[in-house]
Amino acid sequence: MIICLSNQIHVYDLIKISCLVVLTTSLNPNGLCALASFSGSYLCFPDGNDGNVVMYDSLGLRLVNEIAAHKNPIMAMEFNR
Q: Where are the domains of the chain?
């Protein structure tokens, strides 16, 4: 389970009912994030730089990539195969 707050993202294991990791993010007042579960489980969210997106492996609990996606702040995001 993923909970997105204005400056943190909490990743929970619902079987053990425990918090696996708390990610500190830049200001994200809309709690913008996207979760995909193909070929693993990946979480994306905007970082502090305008237009950049962080890709995080929510099973391996590690940063996968940071993508310079746009020149302006991210307003919406979604995964697509």
A: 2-68
